[in-house]
Automatic annotation (TrEMBL):
Organism: Pseudidiomarina homiensis
Lineage start: Bacteria, Pseudomonadati, Pseudomonadota, Gammaproteobacteria, Alteromonadales
Domain EAL residues, every copy: 23-268
Residue range from the parent sequence: 643 to 910 of 910
Official protein name in the record: Bifunctional diguanylate cyclase/phosphodiesterase
Length: 268
């Protein structure tokens, strides 16, 4: 069963009719949130490993509740993908991220923006047009934006996906492969993808302090990414030891609670 949101867990019962009801309750609540512009983007810093300077932020969606709590994306993105609401949601995210990317250009240093893209959105026929139109509308340059995609998106789309990525890169956008190491793509396939950076999933980071096996594993994941000539970002860095360890292994960028949690734009 899908994990449902904070407010919905209370209603959960291992009963199919009930579960459908809660999904449909979430669907209409989510629709209200979209219509009333209640969703928010929070931004998490991404630092360069050599000087730990923040150079980029990742946009992460948040759904504030009337009691002050937040529903996390893992609890509603899957529902939105099931109901089709992911398309307006994802369009809203991209537009807001572009607007905020423009604001971040006034800062010193200027910060680039990473945006998570759902497979369903990426695979829509008009995705590239949507992106280019939104950039024009908001006055955002392509070079200020990085799209984060997962392996499954790229596998589903094959040659089509590759052509889209090439078009987007021609317009200055960069492409990150999210959650690297958790999928099962062949190396020869990954080699063909026009990517700029791979983001090593945080599950590889968690155990490196205590478990030799985990250290060996992350070393080989980093080596694979480097051998494919991609820049490497390590996610989920929570301690200075983890930052030092992956920096020594050659990671170019770092992201995690140690450097900053996701926060509203005004707190950045
Ligand atoms: P992701 O893209 O892999 O995002 C990283 C997640 O790891 C975020 O969770 C972030 O808050 C969390 N994180 C960052 N640093 C640390 C750390 O040091 N330790 C730990 N334990 N966690 C850390 P979040 O914001 O709950 O997002 C979860 C997932 O939801 C994201 O995973 C992404 O797949 C999806 N998501 C978030 N925002 C969007 C969005 O705007 N659009 C789409 N399509 N998906 C989104
Ligand atoms: Ca991401
Ligand atoms: Ca990730
Ligand atoms: Ca993830």
């Amino acid at each position: 069963a899908k994990k449902l949101g904070y407010n919905y867990v209370l209603e959960y019962e291992p009963n199919m009719a009930k579960r459908l009801l809660t999904t449909s309750a979430m669907r209409s609540n989510l629709q209200e949130a979209i219509d009333n512009n209640e969703l928010e983007l929070h931004y998490q810093p991404i630092v360069r490993s050599n000087d730990q300077q923040t150079i980029q932020v990742e946009a992460l969606i948040r759904w504030p509740q009337s009691d002050g709590s937040l529903i996390a994306p893992d609890d509603f993105i899957p529902v939105a993908e099931m109901t089709g609401q992911i398309i307006p949601l994802s369009e809203w995210v991209f537009k807001r991220a572009c607007e905020d990317a423009v604001k971040l250009q006034e800062r010193e240093p200027k910060l680039r923006m990473s945006v998570n893209i759902s497979a369903l959105h990426f695979n829509r026929a008009n995705f590239v047009d949507f992106v280019l139109n939104t950039l024009a509308e908001t006055g955002c340059r392509g070079t200020w934006i990085e799209l984060e995609l997962t392996e499954s998106i790229l596998l589903e789309g094959s040659q089509y996906a590759i052509e889209r990525l090439q078009t987007l890169r021609k317009h200055g956008l960069s492409i990150a492969l999210d959650d690297f190491g958790t999928g099962f793509s062949s190396l020869s396939y990954l080699k063909r993808l026009p990517l700029d950076v791979v983001k090593i999933d945080r599950s590889f980071i968690a155990g490196i302090r205590h478990h030799k096996g985990d250290r060996v594993l992350i070393e080989s994941v980093i080596k694979i990414a480097q051998s494919l000539d991609f820049a490497v970002l390590a996610e989920g860095i929570e301690t200075p030891q983890q930052a030092e360890f992956v920096t020594e292994l050659g990671c170019n960028y770092l992201q995690g609670y140690y450097f900053g949690r996701p926060m509203p734009l005004k707190n950045l």
